[in-house]
Amino acid sequence: QVHLVESGGGLVQAGGSLRLACVASGRTSSIQYMGWFRQAPGKDHEAVAHIKWSDNSTYYGDSVKGRFAISGDNAKNTVYLQMNSLKPEDTALYYCNLRGDYGGVGYWGQGTQVTVSA
Questions:
Q1: Cβ–Cβ < 8 Å for 5, 26
Q2: What is the pLDDT of residues 66-107, one digit of tens each?
Q3: Is 15 left (phi over 0), alpha (psi -120 to 50) or beta?
């Protein structure tokens, strides 16, 4: 069992920055990937970014490439998402996601709201 707690969301003006954090607790020795998804009202769930725990390789969704940066701290079981040059279309509920050797089960945080005003 793994528990995820996100923080760092809020309201920011377009062009501004926010940093999200997600801390994992519980059976963290089996973590393989940690990352972020988002969902805006009326839109599909979207993969934002993820990082592979073993080699720090990263993936970014096309809409955030060059603006967002994901990083991880294995010792703290924490993943961060630095979001720069934010746009109103980045407004969404951002969810932390964790995958690993958990028998096909993925874990989700409760979500943190990011709102970007024009």
A1: no
A2: 999 999 999 999 999 999 999 999 999 999 999 998 888 899
A3: left
